[in-house]
């Protein structure tokens, strides 16, 4: 069974995207991080997996934040063989501000750390740059994000990895196309 896995910080629009992709609403109860299990939906011979949101959340302790991160890391390592692509969802409108806040504290921003981890595990990651509807200077913001993730701008050189989308408006075509080509690649490789 092949899997498409969605990861992302809390509040980036991951549940909205999961619904746009699968037609299934993520059960509300698990969203505040009360439960820590991945949520999966099977479509044909593919399983879409929504991982719990990581990072800071109101009402979530530091210990619980660490638990979520550990769970995600372990899940991805255990399932690496069957994951066709890991989609890292980010809020493109606040990515830079949040990254800079972490860096000013001398820490590696959690989203950069996660992206590097997905690359190291060779999970053919896709960056879903969500909430693009909120950004006026899109090209520039996407260039900055690409650069922060180790992809030399312009971001368009990386269109096979970066998908600017608006999950809320249902404008997710670039991501659908990348997922489709990852599936084709996986089915044509031995
Ligand atoms: P999650 O915590 O990552 O699962 O995030 P949600 O899917 O619950 O979304 C968090 C907030 O972002 C909600 O208020 C959504 O309506 C909003 N949101 C999600 N996608 C988009 C988008 O593409 N554009 C805008 N402007 N808001 C979005």
From TrEMBL:
UniProt-listed InterPro entries: G_ENGB_dom (IPR030393), GTP-bd (IPR006073), P-loop_NTPase (IPR027417)
Keyword rRNA-binding attributed: no
Key words, A-Z: GTP-binding, Magnesium, Metal-binding, Nucleotide-binding
Source domain of life: Archaea
Gene Ontology molecular function terms on file: GTP binding; metal ion binding
Signal sequence segment: none
Stretches assigned to the EngB-type G domain: 1-185
Protein's name according to its UniProt entry: GTP-binding protein, HSR1-related protein
Species, as recorded: Methanothrix thermoacetophila (strain DSM 6194 / JCM 14653 / NBRC 101360 / PT) (Methanosaeta thermophila)
């Amino acid at each position: 069974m092949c899997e498409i896995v969605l990861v992302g910080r809390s509040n980036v629009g991951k549940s909205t995207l999961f619904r746009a992709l699968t037609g299934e609403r993520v059960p509300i109860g698990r969203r505040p991080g009360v439960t820590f299990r991945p949520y999966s939906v099977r479509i044909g011979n593919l399983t879409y997996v929504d991982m719990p949101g990581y990072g800071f959340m109101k009402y979530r302790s530091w210990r619980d934040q660490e638990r979520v991160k550990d769970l995600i890391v372990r899940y991805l390592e255990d399932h690496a063989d069957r994951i066709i692509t890991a989609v890292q969802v980010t809020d493109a409108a606040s990515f830079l501000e949040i990254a800079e806040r972490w860096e000013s504290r001398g820490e590696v921003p959690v989203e950069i750390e996660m992206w590097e981890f997905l690359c190291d595990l060779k999970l053919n990651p896709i960056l879903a740059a969500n909430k693009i509807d909120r950004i006026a200077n899109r090209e520039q913001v996407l260039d900055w994000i690409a650069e922060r993730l180790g992809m030399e701008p312009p971001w368009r050189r990386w269109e096979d990895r970066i998908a600017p989308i608006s999950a809320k408006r249902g404008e997710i075509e670039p991501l659908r196309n990348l997922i489709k080509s990852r599936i084709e690649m996986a089915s044509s490789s031995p």
